[in-house]
Amino acid sequence: MIRNQWYAVLDSKELRKNKLLGITRLGEKLVFWRDRNGDIGCLFDKCTHRGKGRILSNNMVQCPFHGFEYDTSGKVTKIPAIGKKTLVPYRYKVNAYHAVDKHGFIWIFWGENKDEYPPIPFFEDIDEKFKYDTLIDHWPIHYSRVIENQLDVIHLPFVHANTIGRGCRTLIDGPIVKWTEKELQVWAFMRKDDGTKPKKPEELPKPKHDALLHFRFGNIWQNRLANAFRIFAAFVPIDEENTIIYLRLYQKIWRLPVTGWIITKLANRIGNKRILRQDKRVVITQLPKKTKLKIKENLLQGDSPVIEYRRKRKELIEKNNI
User: Fold this and answer.
1) What is the pTM for the complete model shown?
2) In the chain, what are the domains?
3) In this model, does residue 51 exceed pLDDT 60?
4) Kind and range of the H or E run holding 313
């Protein structure tokens, strides 16, 4: 995992008000809570959740063993055994992550605390006009492998032969891969195999339409099928061998409140679920479970989005994981 990045780690609906939630994310046992003001706390699950724990009326979290009270920064504010008027020493503190609720997700900044945090890397063109439905699926593989699968443009005619890959032409020109300040963008061009070699990216005209695939570090991706129709995913690291995918269908084609929601849910729960399972069967068999820039593979021109992801990932790890 890459330090000093925003990660979407939970669907907002999973974190209920005034309830502690202990989970593993990014290889760490964490405890989350939403206080009475709606603010999010995220602490290392070291003391506060060894039992059930509870949220107090002053929005602190209390350890059930010895009554220690913690604020959202991880600082112990009260130790009953030493008396309420005794100043708590600074060393009584557990690590905490800055956490916020935005765009229907709970996000944490997985790194050092800052006076000012970078913007959350959500896609600006997905606004409140979109209706969406969320699928949650667990994959026993490192999250980097799951991301690579969604950047792979040459697997569609084979892994998805009877769904989204039906009728896809197998020869890939390009693909064109571009880094912007915020994201990796991918354009793919499929055509019938006529015996010629795939065209190189520099041999293709400049695209006149938006990129199909968009990926942003730490862990979000979208397939921009149309202005009013998107497939979105957050690839949430549990640990080195497990990932949770939050897959969303966003649409603003069917806008009637009830009808639009029903269509969105059915399309996601039936269509996207089937596609996701096709990918899962293949991806969870990959070895090693965790990707890196150079593995014993014979890569193709069509693998350039995966290669670019690996290159940038290595760069960010070297820069941030010190």
Assistant:
1) 0.91
2) 5-110 (2.102.10.10), 131-320 (3.90.380.10)
3) no
4) helix 304-320
What are the DSSP E strand ranges found in the chain?
A: 5-11, 21-25, 28-34, 40-44, 54-55, 61-62, 69-70, 76-78, 98-102, 105-110, 131-139, 171-179, 184-191, 213-216, 220-226, 229-239, 242-251
The pLDDT of residue 243? 98
Measure the N-to-C terminal CA separation of the chain; round to a whole number of Å.
Answer: 12
User: What is the distance between the alpha carbons of residues 225 and 230, in angstroms, rounded to a whole number?
Assistant: 6
pLDDT computed for residue 85 by the predictor: 80
Query: What does the CA dihedral 282, 283, 289, 292 come to, rounded to 10 degrees?
Result: 120
Span 5-19, pLDDT tens digits: 999 999 999 999 878
**Which phi and psi (to 5°) does residue 283 adopt?**
-65, -40
Q: Which residues contact 311 (CB under 8 A, 6 or more apart)?
A: 293
> Tokens 């039936």 map to which residue?
270
Token pair recorded at residue 216: 């942003």
